[in-house]
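Input C-alpha cells:
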C-alpha cells in the first residue's frame, strides 16, 4: 500500500520515507501541510498514513496495557496478530470512511464552496498524526495527543475547505469527538485524570 507505480499529478510521494516526512510536517508545519499536501483524488497515501498511526498506537497499547484486548485460547503471538490485524486493517479504514461521510454531511450546511470528499478523507487521516503515541498508558500524554489531533482536524478543515474557524468548528466538532474522544480514547484519558465523568 505504500509503493505505487506512478504518482498522480500534484499527489503525495509514496513509501515509508514519504510517510515519515508527512508525519513530521503535519506535527510541525500543519498550515503549510494542509495547504500544499492535500490534493484532490489522492486519498490512498492518507489511508496508508492512518493505518500506520493506528498500528503504532494499538501495538503500543497491546504491549503496555494489561488486558487491553480480550484473551483468546491461542498463543499470545497469534492473539496479538489477530486483534491488531482486525483493528488496523478492518476497523480503522471503515471508521475513516464512515467519519469522512459524516464529516461531508456536516460540511454541507456550514460550508458552501467546499473541497471534495477525497480531501476531507485526507484531512481526517493526517490529523491523527499525534496519536502514534496514544497507546502509551499515560493519561496526560493521551489527552495531549487527542487534543492536538482535534485541533489539527479543525485547522485542516478550515484550510482545505477555505472556511472560517467558527464554521470549521461547527462542522468538525462531532467527528473530532468520535475520532479523538472515543477512537483514540481522549475522553477516557480525561476520566482517568478526574476531569470528566464517564462518557
Amino acid at each position: 500500500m505504500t509503493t505505487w507505480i506512478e504518482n498522480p499529478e500534484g499527489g503525495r510521494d509514496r513509501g515509508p520515507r514519504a510517510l515519515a516526512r508527512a508525519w513530521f510536517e503535519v506535527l510541525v508545519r500543519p498550515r503549510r501541510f494542509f495547504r500544499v499536501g492535500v490534493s484532490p483524488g489522492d486519498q490512498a497515501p492518507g489511508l496508508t498514513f492512518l493505518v500506520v498511526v493506528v498500528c503504532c498506537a494499538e501495538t503500543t497499547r497491546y504491549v503496555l496495557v494489561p488486558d487491553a484486548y480480550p484473551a483468546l485460547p491461542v498463543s499470545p503471538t497469534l492473539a496479538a496478530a489477530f486483534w491488531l490485524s482486525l483493528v488496523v486493517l478492518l476497523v480503522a479504514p471503515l471508521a475513516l470512511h464512515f467519519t469522512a461521510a459524516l464529516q461531508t454531511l456536516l460540511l454541507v450546511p456550514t460550508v458552501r464552496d467546499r473541497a471534495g470528499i477525497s480531501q476531507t478523507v485526507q484531512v481526517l487521516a493526517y490529523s491523527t498524526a499525534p496519536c502514534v503515541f496514544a497507546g502509551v498508558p499515560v493519561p496526560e500524554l493521551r489527552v495531549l495527543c487527542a487534543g492536538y489531533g482535534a485541533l489539527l482536524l479543525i485547522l485542516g478543515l478550515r484550510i482545505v475547505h477555505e472556511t472560517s474557524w467558527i464554521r470549521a468548528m461547527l462542522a468538525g466538532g462531532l467527528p473530532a469527538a468520535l475520532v479523538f474522544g472515543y477512537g483514540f480514547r481522549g475522553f477516557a484519558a480525561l476520566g482517568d485524570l478526574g476531569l470528566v465523568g464517564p462518557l
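The two ends are 36 Å apart (CA to CA). Residues 1-10 have pLDDT under 50 and may be disordered.
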